[in-house]
Amino acid sequence: MAIPTGVDVWLVDMGYAAKVRPALVLSVQIQGDERILTTVIPHTTSARGTRLEFVSDVRWLKEGAFDAQGIGTYPTVKLIKRLRKLPDDQLSTVERCVLVWLGFHDQQDGG
After folding, report:
1. Which of 52, 74, 90, 94 is the most buried (most CB within 10 A)?
2. pTM to 2 decimals?
3. What average pLDDT does range 45-56 have in this prediction?
């Protein structure tokens, strides 16, 4: 079973409708009886250019964006393969998009 640690991009089985796709996996170390779940931000090749998407320019992903509106939680058994770590400068932009989506950050504050 995959045990994610930290923040990495993985191939994730998101079910029949969403298919297997890259996603940024946000994870903390599981302790004791905690459920083995991970939160993911899916990568899409159908970006719309919204304030809730972040276009990543890493060569190992197809052209597209991470979509904070698609954030979801999946059991770790849905994680297929770790791809790579997202560069830190890009990770901070993804975090900002998530904070805007959750209402913790105003887009006019630089998000």
Report:
1. 94
2. 0.81
3. 87
